[in-house]
Amino acid sequence: MMKAQSPTLNDVAMQAGVSTATVSRCLNEPEKVTAKTREKVMATVTALGYSPNFGARAMATQRTNTIGAVIPTMENAIFARGLQAFQEELWRLGFNLMVASSSYQRELEVAQVRSLVARGADALLLIGHIRDPQIYALLDAQQIPSLVTWTYDPSAARPSVGFDNCAAMRDMARKVLELGHQRLAMMTAPLARNDRAQARLLGLKDAMVEFGLNSDALPIVEYPYGIENGAIGFAALMQGSTKPTAIFCGNDVLAVGALRGARDMGLNVPGDVSIIGFDDIELSQVTYPLLTTVHVPHRDMGQRAARALVRHLNDDAPLESQELHTELRLRASLGPPPR
Amino acid sequence: MMKAQSPTLNDVAMQAGVSTATVSRCLNEPEKVTAKTREKVMATVTALGYSPNFGARAMATQRTNTIGAVIPTMENAIFARGLQAFQEELWRLGFNLMVASSSYQRELEVAQVRSLVARGADALLLIGHIRDPQIYALLDAQQIPSLVTWTYDPSAARPSVGFDNCAAMRDMARKVLELGHQRLAMMTAPLARNDRAQARLLGLKDAMVEFGLNSDALPIVEYPYGIENGAIGFAALMQGSTKPTAIFCGNDVLAVGALRGARDMGLNVPGDVSIIGFDDIELSQVTYPLLTTVHVPHRDMGQRAARALVRHLNDDAPLESQELHTELRLRASLGPPPR
DNA sequence: GTTGTCGTTGTAAGCCCTTACATTGACGCA
DNA sequence: TGCGTCAATGTAAGGGCTTACAACGACAAC
Fold this sequence. Notes:
2 copies of one chain form a homodimer. By secondary structure, chain A is α/β, with parallel strands linked by helices. Chain A has helices at 9-16, 20-28, 35-48, 54-61, 77-92, 106-118, 133-141, 165-178, 195-210, 227-238, 252-264, 298-315, and strands at 66-71, 96-101, 123-127, 146-149, 160-162, 184-188, 220-222, 246-249, 274-276, 293-295, 322-323, 327-329. Chains A and B meet through helix 4, helix 5, strand 2, helix 6 and helix 10 of A and helix 4, helix 5, strand 2, helix 6 and helix 10 of B.
């Protein structure tokens, strides 16, 4: 009955006295059209307030210029920063970002991927390699390109843009061990289905073995992301009879919590115990004492991932793995062991 | 030539020996189809690995089940938390989220809105009321519903789901003034085109007037989001001859920076100076001293916004403003003025 | 047995672009 | 003048789904 339809390509074409093909060309490949025609058409476009119908365009081109990302959570500063950079770069390249969060839940991630694909994502950004194989099967079946980030693993089947979590933590651990620490402990995010966390733990153990320590005896506690949890975890690690002199944290948030836990227990950092983080989020530069941590180039990673995906989609460039480098940030929370 | 096309509705229909209409109904309104037919069809769907073509569906329904959000930045914990909740709720309701960030730049926001609309967003989430009028014109022209958040302003032309920034800060300021503080100062995010920041400042000034102080004399410094900036701003405010005894910060991040600035300058909080934040992000519960701040229900806000938009899209429910309530969190960083 | 009703399924008309291919026309050159 | 060339434009065929409406068939009521 009543139709206040927005104008279509055809409306513009008729109004401007040209064919729909010409209008389409004016919009998408203006160089293929005479300046005169182009002006006439563009004038009509603005006059009518025309804007292309998304669905029709998506159908005709089989593209949406939208890329999906499934991340554990945006609330974690680590992901927020990388994701922000990813979005900014996508924007520069003419793409939009769809976000879904899996809350570290395996089945949920499957559903999210399915949904993003159903919503027309041209490609996907994923975090880490470990996930339900269904996801890879789905992506292969639908021929959706995907890129793994927050880790770099040349041995994995899929391309990744990230850094070597294991090597980074190993380097840090060596520094700590060189200071003479013997009793280490680790507080990590839950290890199950988190290859980044697993790799970091592995790096620590590697270094221990190098230094002749028994890595099997390493006390390990697992806590979800959260400052409060860091404090709790710290207390848990310190209540045994043989207290560690250096506590490695899988991420800075837990480490900041540990610093707080130490303060609550009246312990001096690093006098009584050293605390080491991972990520170098902004927060770690303002704690007291300043946090020793591994600096991760999150923004660079997000940007590179965006560029790689877009080049793949636009120019058919192969999706290749890229390794980014981390750096140790040795700050006040690390010192020699007590005594 | 070579086509490894993915199966279409038609393929499924032929294979299952029914019409495309029936297949479509099985997928979208299963209750309208006999159980027997439905089973047969669904079996074929899985057998063929069929999944609907996004573009075609979008074209036929004029819907994408995708909602866009334009936020200043995801890196700010405040937005990250609310956005996360928004996304989770959208997901529960069967929608996807597209994110764009404006970096507080007016023109960029216009472009982002345009892009999200062009990418088929069914509706938009926006932060605050102040923006280029072009945006509202565009949304009206294309009939894209939108909802404003992070603020509640019944006098504004557009519906909003949020809280009264002015009243919240006014309440906090009263508490501080009741303690006897006379020399106040404000550190805020840049005020230009940020109605939330402006409202918070206004609330502070209101309270000052109530208590007989000259609000025009209030020292104000503006710094972008960032812990480091908070420290810088603090130093700036404390270097005058008449030092403030209470510093109001427009957000917790600046406040945390201020705490750090105080420590750097060897000042005691709240002995020498009280520091007050806004937002109650996780961080504020672990600083030393704990931060006095205004608690904002970011998650609740995100959820409500999602529900309101979806109800509007699905059930044509009117988009109505909702006011959420903030709470004062009086913690150790606030004390009586020195002397 | 006929007719009417109603629940189920089928038919086919859009929805609005893009683009391969066809057509046109201007121009240069013989 | 006639012809070939090439750039500019037009024609029309999809592309895959939803849905109004038509058709059908089973069953109940008379």
